[in-house]
Design brief:
By secondary structure, the protein is an alpha/beta fold. The protein is built from seven helices and 15 strands. The protein has one domain: 4-Layer Sandwich (Metallo-beta-lactamase, Chain A), CATH 3.60.15. 22% of the residues lie in helices and 28% in strands. The longest helix is centred in the last third of the chain and has 11 residues. The structure holds zinc ion (2 copies).
């Protein structure tokens, strides 16, 4: 299982990072998790957009779905020497799909197949088990888990606050991709819908994950400082996502294969 980071910024772009998007390749099938604003340019750098087997949108915020429009335009209007015969299944909650239909004026469903899913659902795509769970964010937000036939499981929380329910929903031994929007979240700033570094560490310990890729760090917070804070309280593999990083996920470790962004934050 490989993960290509197409967007690692939190909530809005930074000078050198685009918004949330992750390409996961399992047994030759490519799954796109989220398509935040700016991420499509990174997709073009590392992968053929025609080779996407399924799309998953965790929730309706623009930093997770805006570039689905760019992907749609590319697939519809760039010939690329091939014509897709099958629609690409696009999995999201009903609330996210309703938002997307308005946002895209309904036009994208000649390329994408509308697949409405809810927390607790399981699907199988080309032998990969795909699960959806509830998280603590805006209405209709879902976590997405991908389990390869070889047993490795990748769990993507999307945006979420910490909760013991979230931890309980993560299969032990998974590799986690999760957000740390904050270094340290301020108390009293309203209902929590995001995590900070200590909450990420708590989530990793509670869920007994084998490792974590920390992402969605909001500029100007420094992703490396967030990673160091997580490592203070969690002893598994901790990697910090930067745009265009490629990770190999094995059942017991995360290996950074390449980092070509060469940037600070
Ligand atoms: Zn977000
Ligand atoms: Zn969000």
């Amino acid at each position: 299982m490989k993960v290509k980071i197409l967007g690692s910024a939190g909530s809005y772009q930074s000078p050198s990072r685009q918004c949330s998007s992750y390409l996961v390749i399992i047994d030759g099938i490519s799954f796109l998790l989220d398509a935040g604003n700016g991420s499509f340019g990174n997709l073009l750098k590392v992968h053929d957009p025609f080779d996407i087997g399924a799309v998953f949108l965790s929730h309706r915020h623009h930093d997770h779905l805006a570039d689905i429009i760019s992907l749609y335009h590319y697939l519809k209007f760039v010939p690329n020497g091939e014509v897709r015969r099958d629609k690409i299944p696009l999995f999201a909650s009903r609330i996210t799909h309703d938002f997307l239909s308005n946002f895209a004026a309904g036009s994208i469903f000649d390329i994408f197949e509308r697949r409405v899913v809810a927390a607790g659902e399981l699907n199988t795509i080309e032998g990969v088990e795909v699960g959806f769970g509830g998280v603590n964010h805006v209405d209709g937000s879902l976590s997405i888990s991908l389990k390869a036939q070889s047993g490795e499981t990748l769990f993507y929380s999307g945006d979420s606050a910490y909760s013991s329910d979230l931890a309980a929903s993560i299969p032990g031994g998974s590799t986690l991709i999760t957000e740390s929007t904050y270094l340290i979240r301020k108390e009293g700033s309203g209902k929590a819908i995001h995590m900070d570094a200590m909450e990420v560490a708590q989530l990793c310990n509670d869920a007994k994950v084998s490792g974590v890729i920390v992402t969605h760090v909001a500029h100007p917070n420094d992703p490396d400082v967030v990673g160091d804070l997580v490592r203070q309280s969690y002893t598994g593999y901790v990697e910090v996502a930067r745009d265009l990083d490629i990770f190999q996920i094995d059942s017991d470790k995360i290996v950074r294969l390449t980092s070509i962004s060469g940037e600070g934050i």
